[in-house]
Write a structure and sequence with these properties.
Two copies of one chain form a homodimer. Chain A contains nine helices and nine strands. Chain A is α/β, with parallel strands linked by helices and about 250 residues long. Chain A has two domains: about 180 residues, SPOUT methyltransferase, trefoil knot domain (Alpha/beta knot), CATH 3.40.1280.10; about 60 residues, Helicase, Ruva Protein, domain 3. A seven-stranded parallel beta sheet of chain A has the order 4-3-2-7-5-8-6. Chain A starts with 5 loop residues before the first strand and ends with a helix. The relative contact order of chain A is 0.16. The interface between A and B is medium-sized, with 32 and 32 residues.
Chain lengths: ~250, ~250
């Protein structure tokens, strides 16, 4: 069926603060239509479990029942190696874009990938997009760009299903873990990158990098957008970055 | 945005006996996201207008309000020149298939196109698919192929929006009409083809073409599937076909 397609692990779908259970259920159904299995949900507005999500999932109740719930994005992406943030309209963020119809051109092979979708009424905030490696955009009529979440999930999942071969058994791919110290090719997870950002931002605060408190938020976002664009950042490389911070701050304190 | 795309007229979306107003509304929203404007509905189960369709259409209420309602498929496709029938699973029908992700490879330029979607629970019947020139199939996981209608509309409309340039003013394209007798390139409409089928089937009945009454339905379907596969059938050519029937039957009666 799929010609010259690359083998990939099934990407994880992350819904950020979804408001309506119906949309969560419909998203699960669309995922299952196109071979996706894992859903994560950050702070669903109406709590969890949600009977409307159950009923709208139709035959995809297994995805709803296995969905993992998180309080915040940082926890939800802790083990993710490559994160897409979906947007309908272009944002003025210094981050690479890929359109859904050519998603396969950017899709990282052999990485643990997640795709993040925002709220029904306002999508993802720029700060949330800042966590992502890349923006995934569904091209729409500019006069009416507000996509239903489940429609967006369907469109993106359909593109993946058609242009990439999803591995049914992600465990077949050799994962990181204990080898991380010796193998320079093991990729950093998003959790490790977050730990790096915490380290970096706390040091920047100590050193009063940002003079204006009202610009602090903007500053951290810009920095996130720089580092998250590093392609295939390995654990070793991240360790190096952290070492640089440690080193620089040590010298500064001397 | 779209590279090397062909100019097309915006295809018409036809929903056949949709059951839930919510799905009609959500389909209208997905259409508008991807630049489609005209919806036709054949025998909506819960009548028309439908307040649930209105509320689920969100910003696409104009599409709902302008939707045309028909009692049957024949009337709904009367002016259509090329008709796609969507299916999720493969059917044993002798008709050409195109997958949604390569829809643009088959899309007829400068023709009045409609795309027909079936009921929530059982899709289109084989008889209904018989009206179409081609089957449009959305590739899904074979273990879970039942797509929500609005998701199917979103996926198909997204492919069209990305791979074809929709003309905002269909009237800019020179249409048939009075020139049909002199210009052999003017295409036959589905209504004219239907008139041809009526002519043909009535003559076949007169001539007891089908010996077994229980096979009659099957016979007409097979014949439809033959003629609807004729690419770009012009009015003149259809006139020729009708002339053949008239001629053959006249000789037979002598």
């Amino acid at each position: 069926m799929v010609q010259n397609a690359e083998l990939i692990m099934s990407p994880i779908i992350i819904l950020v603060e979804p408001q309506m259970g119906e949309n969560i259920g419909a998203s699960a159904r669309a995922m299952k239509n196109f071979g996706l299995v894992e859903m994560r949900i950050v702070s669903p507005r109406d709590g969890w479990p949600n009977s409307k999500a159950d009923s709208m999932s139709v035959g995809a109740l297994d995805i709803i029942q296995n969905a993992k719930i998180y309080d915040n994005i940082v926890d939800a992406i802790e083990d993710i190696e490559f994160l897409y943030a979906t947007t309908a309209v272009e944002r003025s963020i210094n981050k690479n874009y890929v359109m859904a119809d050519i998603l396969h051109s950017s899709y990282p092979i052999n990485q643990k990938v997640a795709i993040m979708f925002g709220r029904e009424n306002c999508g993802l905030t720029n700060a949330e997009i800042g966590y992502a490696n890349m923006i995934l955009s569904v091209r729409t009529d500019p006069n009416f760009s507000s996509l239903n979440i489940a429609h967006a999930v369907a469109v993106v999942a359909h593109e993946i299903f058609n242009n990439l071969c999803i591995l049914s058994t992600p465990d077949n791919i050799k994962r990181g873990g204990d080898e991380s110290h010796t193998n320079p090719q093991i990729l950093a997870t998003r959790g490790e990158l977050e730990y790096f950002f915490e380290h970096l931002f706390s040091e920047l605060d100590v050193h009063k990098f940002c003079k204006l408190p009202e610009k602090h938020h903007h500053m951290t976002q810009n920095i996130r957008n720089i580092f998250t664009r590093i392609d295939r950042l390995s654990k070793n490389e991240l360790q190096t970055l952290r070492g640089i911070i440690t080193s620089l701050t040590r010298r500064n304190n001397n």
